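=== Structure Prediction Worksheet ===
Name of assembly: unnamed complex
Input type: mixed (protein and possibly other molecules)
Chain count: two
Listed entries:
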Amino acid sequence: MLYLQVLLNGIVLGCIYACVATGFSLVWGVLNVINLMHGTFIVLGSYLAWWAYSALNIAPWTALLIAAPVYFCLGYAVQRGILNRVIASPVLVTLTLTFGLDLMLNNAMLYFFKADYRRLVLEPAMGSLSVGPLVVPVDRLVAMAFALLLTLILYLILRRSRVGRAIVAVRMDRDAALLMGVNVKSIYAIAFGLGASMAGCAGVLLAMIYPISPVASGGYLGKAFVVCVLGGLGSVPGAIIGGLFLGLVESFGSVAFGPEHSVTLSFGLLILFLIFRPQGILGKRGFE
Amino acid sequence: MKPAVLFASLAVLVLLAGLPFLGSAYALRIGTFACMYAIMSVSWTVIGGFAGYPSFATAAFFGFGAYCGAILINMGWPLSVAIGAAGALAFAGAFLFGTVLLRLRGHYFAIGSLAVAEVLRELTNSATDLTGGGMGLNIPLSVTGSNSVIADASFFFWVMWALLVITFLVVATIQRSKLGFGLICIKQNESAADMIGVNATLYKSTAFAFSGVFVAMAGVVYAGWVHYIEPPDVYDILFAVKPIVMALLGGLGSPAGALLGAFVFLGIEEVVWRNYLEIHSGVLGFMVVVLLLFLPNGLLSIGKRLRRLGARNG
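=== Predicted Assembly ===
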């Protein structure tokens, strides 16, 4: 029975990881930019949820409706104003640039919110659900459901909408898309905005489960890296597969080796995947 | 590198050696840090500047060296032997690991090299018997035998300085050698370089090893100097990023640029630290952004730009 419980924990964790990573994967896949600000965007989302709940009494799932447009605009502005200027430069430049921006953003956060841990405590508490011997906290279940919903929405946007098709076209072949009349710079900005929006929403959901602190951003960024490499870069299904895989590996790994080794395990896995299967589990595919 | 630039850099280094005669502990501290960061950025130039591989493994080398050295010193080995042993281990390890890791390119290599530091840190954290884990490790090393703070500080400054001079000379030699030429070929077009007979794997791994060996040695000196190390301190991701920023600041692909970048960067950072403690990392980030947007070719390119401007006007 223990293994069923571990399996369940892994799946719940995995869905949340998937939501954390989809935005990162979108930006990496389409823009070929590793957005080191992703973790900070997530924490900013958590702060928004905390503020909305404690000041305005807005429940986190309603706060998603605020977070999505707000972070979309933030991401759009960053890409339009700063990153588009160096988008054609070598990897080193874009990577270092997002690192610099992240330092600024993270420092601003530390300055305004301090490094204290805050906790969003839902009143009344949601308790936990038990089916037979299996127990799962309801807040995690709700977060997981919304994480899946958000990922599905992103998938549908990319699959069905005109803008989404344009993003996929740019990912597949930038020059061909340009020749077909796609405004590539604008698509870059929209893709980055969508990535930031997903990060903010993931942050809102994470606020229901984990304590909030600016120092958590590095950890979330690391998870996003690992999920992207495991699942395969630049596709929504890849992020889901990668997230679930990581969630399961971490929950079974902490039973087998002890929870203190979960980070070593996930990064060790990352290196192995990079060396032996850099295209990820799903292989190289476009953004469906 | 032109002879004039080389000799100017060496002159700066020779002048720097006189720092302990000022008798200021503060100046010595800054000087030692300047040498340490310069070792990192000049070393990084071999893999990042010559070969064009964005390595974030500097933190891994540094932490590895610091822990290696600390453990050896605590076992009673003298400092010089510990430095040599840590350097040799880092060279061999980086070479072997490089043959696999350097098959990755671009972002994938960047992440892979970053992950190495993470894994090493977690391993250091969990190998409690050997490293003290999260408790850190004390290195009760008395090198000069005297209790004078200045004498100790001067000693470690000179060791770090000597290491910097060696690093700089070695990297400048690499640049002029066949190895350096091969690395620049790899940067421009790896497949073409492979085609005309450059053994890319061997060259890249050697470059990776050279980018690690002196950083690991600096790690040993650092451990002996500060007497206490802990995993989040020596495996700090900033040790991986700052050398890159320094090299970019000075001018990518030039050892003299890396040297200049390290000194200028540290100077600016020190001023920021002293005046704006709470927002220093934000100011650092701002500098990075401004640098990349407006001076992408570094400080050394300013002279070139001015000369070109003069030629156009004259």
